[in-house]
Amino acid sequence: MFGMITDLGMVRNLNEDCVGYLINNNIKLFIVADGMGGHNAGEIASKIAVDTVKDYFEEKPNISKENLSSHFKEAIICANEKIFNISKQKKECRGMGTTITACIMYEDKTLIANVGDSSCFVIKKDNIIKVTKDHSLVQQLVDKGSITEEEAVNHPNKNVITRAVGTYEHLEIDIFDISYINVDMILLCTDGLTNDISKDELYNIINKDSCVRYDELCKKIIEEAKKRGGRDNISLILVKGEQDYDDRNNIR
Question: In the UniProt record, does the keyword Nucleotide-binding occur (predicted)?
Fold first, then answer.
């Protein structure tokens, strides 16, 4: 069970976010991407990223659980190469790139991949945990102790990311191996959501309406973000977890 939505927001004229999923044999794959670049190049970059990662796993039906992480990285590296090469070949696409945050599930293994400042959260019975760490200038300042988490929220350079798919020939990708037990939901989202709604506020909204259909819950979250300004494109995917509270495994 899952819900998925992408929205223009209240300010932008173009939606440069892209979302996608693949359910193929034993693999479940969910992806959000937030494009950047001049003209409509950001829209192109995010779509290439989502389509390339999906196509990679569609064409490799016999992946084993043991090599899932290496294939996950390879799929995103393929997307990086495609976007980087197109940006060099086409003047109107020069400098384009995209964030990517993706979740892949295979048997009892769940991996999260991240490049940029889109996010993954694990929502449990009584808390919410951010799995990913932003690749951004503001996050670097927080890590160095130059600014506080509170100051980061409205920092003027909040939109400056330090890592993106397609902007350089070589790419570093974060992979997180998480426990699926005791999880109500996994949330993937672009920063258009987290810029307007805090982590704790997300937990309260989801916890309050957790009994509604996942697609309806996604719409409620989007509506709340737009009420608060909707300054950017807003995208999210909610994926059902495995709710077994007798086993107290945590994120690994």
Answer: no
Over residues 64-93, the mean pLDDT reads 95
**Count of C-beta atoms within a 10 Å radius of residue 227:** 11
Closest CA to 136 of 116, 114, 156: 116
Domains of the chain: 2-240 (3.60.40.10)
118: pLDDT strictly greater than 50? yes
pLDDT tens digit sequence for 156-198? 887 889 999 999 999 999 999 998 778 999 999 999 999 999 9
* Residue 140 to residue 232: CA distance in whole angstroms: 22
Exposed, middle or buried: residue 213 (CB in 10 Å: 0-12, 13-18, 19+)? Answer: exposed
> From residue 62, how far is each of 24, 29, 78 by CA, in Å?
11, 15, 19
Q: Which two tokens stand for residue 167?
A: 């902007």
Could you write out the three-class secondary structure of the chain? CEEEEEECCCCCCCCCEEEEEEEECCEEEEEEEEEECCCCHHHHHHHHHHHHHHHHHHCCCCCCHHHHHHHHHHHHHHHHHHHHHHHHHCHHHCCCEECEEEEEEECCEEEEEEECCCEEEEEECCCEEECCCCCEHHHHHHHHCCCCHHHHHCCCCCCCECCCECCCCCCCCEEEEECCECEEEEEEECHHHHCCCCHHHHHHHHHHCCCCCHHHHHHHHHHHHHHCCCCCCEEEEEEECECCCCCCCCCC
